[in-house]
Amino acid sequence: MIKREVTVLASAVSDLREAIGFYERRQEKLGDYFIDSIIVDLESLSFYGGIHAKTFGFYRKLAKRFPFAIYYTIKDNSILVAAVLDMRRKPAWNRNQLRRRRR
Fold it and tell me: Which of 29, 44, 48, 81 is the most exposed place for a label (fewest CB within 10 A)?
């Protein structure tokens, strides 16, 4: 099994900060739980990156505990996470976000 390096791009970091704030406003420490859960999902990409279906030109991994999707590409032997988007938004909004993030 190949282990790949996972890099979270600045655009995805921005998505994560926004989501943490959203959950933290709902309940204290929920933002911490969200990011801990997403980090586990991101770490799993080092082994399982590339097995997910492509959506809007990116591989898409659904988060295990929250309604978010992790969009990534593979370059050489690295996983590049371009977005972590809320799946409760309109699909057109997510599609537009991903179009802006094409590499």
Answer: 29
